[in-house]
Amino acid sequence: MTSSSVPSRKVLSKIASNRLQKEVMEWQTNPPAGFKYKVNDSLQRWIIEVTGAPGTLYTGETYQLQVDFPEHYPMEAPQVIFIPPAPLHPHIYSNGHICLDILYDSWSPAMTVSSVCISILSMLSSSPAKERPADNDRYVRNCRNGRSPKETRWWFHDDKV
Amino acid sequence: MEKQAQMRKEVGNACFRKDKLGAAIDSYTEAIALQPNVAVYWTNRALCFRKKKEWTRVEEDCKRALQLDRNSHKAHYMLGLALLEKEDYTGAISELGKAWDIMRSIAPHGEKADELWRVLAKAKFMEWELTSSEHHWRLQNLKEVCENAFREYSFLHEESGDSAPNYLSGQLQLLNEVFDKASRADLPTDVPDYLCCKITFDIFTDPVLTPSGITYERSALLEHLKTVGNVDPITRQPLKESQLIPNLAIKGAVQEFLKEHGWAYNMA
């Protein structure tokens, strides 16, 4: 999967762009610790740099998240993936897809990019081992046609990690 | 007579749909000639003029329509737009406000009422921009006059000793603080979080309270219930539309806030 495969690139609705502008402003004055928003001219795709928290398996490592917003954000969840190389983690596939319930079934419009980032960092921080999900190869093979993780029927591993 | 006028109007409507504005205007004019006391003929013609951006004609037709039917929200609305074009903000706000009130009594939570609110908010913001820059300019002038008066005074009384320069700078600093405070309400900052919806991040227009005690913008929450599911977006407690209660206290607080901080209308 390449970073350019996005299902639909419909323009953002008025509510969505309004809200994203507010999120950008909020991020600029109060960015979540460990994250850096890489400024580009697109409101609809954010690239965010994550740095592993001190004292965890990912200390000092940096990764890039790609966040794509659907037309009806925030009623619909953003698509959040790691741009490969993705961190080695039991819930992160080698193509960058992340198995995290709030990105799919448990999304709520009251969440923000910032709160999603914090969840992802806490998922990284609590990882017991640097390894891929058991079904990594099969899953990644199934995604070869550029399928979005939002089309996956996720079977959430557990909520301990 | 009545039938003929009605027919002219139908022809006008057909032309309008095909974007033949000139022909539509002619048909409505004929309908008006046959039956000048029907408000709809005037508002329909005004709509054509609006599309052609002939704002004085829009204004004239809407005023005629309102003489015939004071509750025509279309006439109030288009008259408001015409006045906005003329930069008559007070007039525009009054007309748009009437249109909004009428619309809200017909369809309280419809899209049209929301749209009207946005236009009204825009007008109020434009009015604020104008009055606040005037106000700012006048304050600035007054401040300069005061500063100069202080300087002159201390110059004339220089013989009063070494403490004079200190005294002067202290007075000038105080003056600065006073004027700073006076212009602060006009400085756009952030709307407090408790006046903003957790979904839209905008200041509330129609806040509703859920059984979890959280307030949302009605239209955004209804959209959430429809597309995401029947739960409170923050607490995930089960939630149905029938459980929502208008939050009048917050609504009042929003109105108070907007009165003091006109810049906050800039959200539409």
UniProtKB/TrEMBL annotation, chain A:
Active site: 99
InterPro entries associated with the record: Ub_conjugating_enzyme, UBC, UBQ-conjugating_AS, UBQ-conjugating_enzyme/RWD
Domain of life: Eukaryota
Cross-referenced Pfam families: UQ_con (PF00179)
Keyword line: ATP-binding, Nucleotide-binding, Transferase, Ubl conjugation pathway
Keyword presence, Metal-binding: no
EC assignment: 2.3.2.23
Location of the UBC core domain: 15-161
A GO molecular-function descriptor: ATP binding
Family note: Belongs to the ubiquitin-conjugating enzyme family.
Role played: Accepts the ubiquitin from the E1 complex and catalyzes its covalent attachment to other proteins.
Protein name per the record: E2 ubiquitin-conjugating enzyme
Automatic annotation (TrEMBL), chain B:
Swiss-Prot/TrEMBL GO biological process terms: cellular response to misfolded protein; positive regulation of proteolysis; proteasome-mediated ubiquitin-dependent protein catabolic process; protein polyubiquitination; protein quality control for misfolded or incompletely synthesized proteins
InterPro entries for this protein: CHIP_RING-Ubox, TPR-like_helical_dom_sf, TPR_rpt, Ubox_domain, Znf_RING/FYVE/PHD
Gene3D superfamilies tied to this protein: Tetratricopeptide repeat domain, Zinc/RING finger domain, C3HC4 (zinc finger)
Pfam families: TPR_16, U-box
U-box domain segment(s): 190-264
GO molecular function, one term: ubiquitin protein ligase activity
Renumbered ranges of TPR repeats: 5-38
Keyword Transit peptide in annotation: no
Full protein name: E3 ubiquitin-protein ligase CHIP
Organism: Carex littledalei
